[in-house]
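Budget justification aside, the reviewers requested a transparent look at the raw inputs and outputs of the sequence design task funded under Objective 1. We therefore reproduce one unedited record. The lines immediately below are the structure tokens for a 97-residue chain.
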């Protein structure tokens, strides 16, 4: 996702069942330290208790749509971090209830 002043990548959890989504989020959250160590960054963990879905976000602050000269740099950063994000979550998602 790219907004005016930032970009972000995320893991969005929504299988259409609120209880299942929260259970899966909690399972992933139990591996937070391991996941963040692989990624090399801290993530924003949003359980969103009043909503059906959950999300886990990494944000690239200060570069967004209004910084047209920086778009290539932001895209490269997002691609590189998304590869690491997939690696960090791969095993945990495969074992998720």
């Amino acid at each position: 996702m790219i907004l005016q002043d930032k970009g972000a990548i995320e893991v969005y959890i929504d299988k259409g069942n609120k209880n299942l989504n929260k259970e899966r989020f909690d399972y992933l959250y139990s591996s937070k330290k391991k996941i963040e160590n692989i990624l090399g960054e801290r993530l924003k963990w949003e359980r969103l208790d009043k909503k059906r879905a959950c999300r886990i976000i990494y944000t690239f602050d200060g570069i967004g749509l209004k910084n047209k000269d920086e778009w290539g740099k932001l895209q490269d950063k997002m691609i590189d971090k998304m590869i690491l994000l997939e690696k960090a979550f791969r095993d945990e998602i495969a074992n998720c209830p």
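The longest helix spans residues 71-94. The chain has a mean pLDDT of 95. Computational costs for records of this kind are itemized in the attached budget.
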